[in-house]
Amino acid sequence: MDIFTIAAILIVLAAAFGYINVRFLKLPTTIGLMLISILFSTAMLLVGRISPEILAVEAEFVRSIDFTKVLMEGMLGFLLFAGALHVDFSQLKAQRGPIVMFATLGVVASTFLVGGLMYGVFTLLGLHIPFIFCLLFGALISPTDPIAVLGILKKAGVPKKLETKIVGESLFNDGIGVVVFLSLFQLARAGMQEIHWDEIGLLFLEEVGGGIALGLALGFAAYHLMRTIDNYEVEILITLAIVMGGSLLAATLHFSAPLAMVVAGLMVGHERFRTSSMSETTERYVDKFWELIDTLLNALLFVIIGLEIIVINFEDNYVLAGLIAIPVVLLARYASLWLPVRLFQKRLEFVPRTDLIMTWGGLRGGISIALALTLSAGMPRDLMLTVTYIVVVFSIVVQGLSVGKVVEKVVKT
Asked: So what CATH class is 67-412?
């Protein structure tokens, strides 16, 4: 199936599901689209029992979408840049200490906590999975997804200081989490006996440091180009070039493209950047353009996530492992936040029960599924994908729908 056909079908489905959601369900867009998409796919599975040909056509369509490539090499850069563009930089700077700890120490701690606990769970269920693959699962499920978080927190009534922590963490821990996953993936593929820790450390520094440096360079390039002209069409093209060209350059240099796009987006969205390089007209058009990109790609992404249920292997043990993984992931999330919260809560006057709200508001999304899909045939791919999918769906639907009520109850009490 060619790219245009796939894109056309996805946009038609996104438009139809979006209309149903706005007209009848009135749920947050990301949740509504994914939920309707899951219900649609479930209906197709039921229809497939009567007419297998229809199910075969849909399954072929879903398999023709290279979800990992579409998200990690296509959508992710646009979505992270768009998300970072509207982050309150002054709040982000004020909260930089805990955000850095959440995105680094928190991700690593959660990776090992989830990996260790799930190793025990898999063993009890008779699924003998090597520990390195349990760590891989910990790495792919630990980062909170900025794509899921940004869309839902806007309507959840989260206090601004806390929203900055959650959004800032999710923007950065996404890039860190991908690097941790890639490092562990190399270990799993090479075998523990062939570990070269200096190479792993070099990879981490290259990906993270290179990604941040590239993002700064792209941001400065955009600034110097945009301040010398006043033409909103060309300036929008410059921001688009920063994302597309920057992502391609990051991949060529083996730098973290997600981190580069976050840093570039923060710079372009910075108040000083805007006042000295953009006219009011340009600022308005740039914002509207990236809001539209964000909305369109989010719609497509969550429709694809819902459709993926068609190709998931829901064996009994896999489903049970997925259901147990939900509290395991939440517990690991809470534990990994404990130290950073305790270190900074008095100095920065944290909102009451910040650790609890961040645990429930730290949603998982498409990035986790995309990473699970990168596992090779010799790895426990079906198991990891099923468990990841169950955790992600619970996270977006249950946590996403209730995070506003949790915030209201905790903050008021």
From this structure: mainly alpha
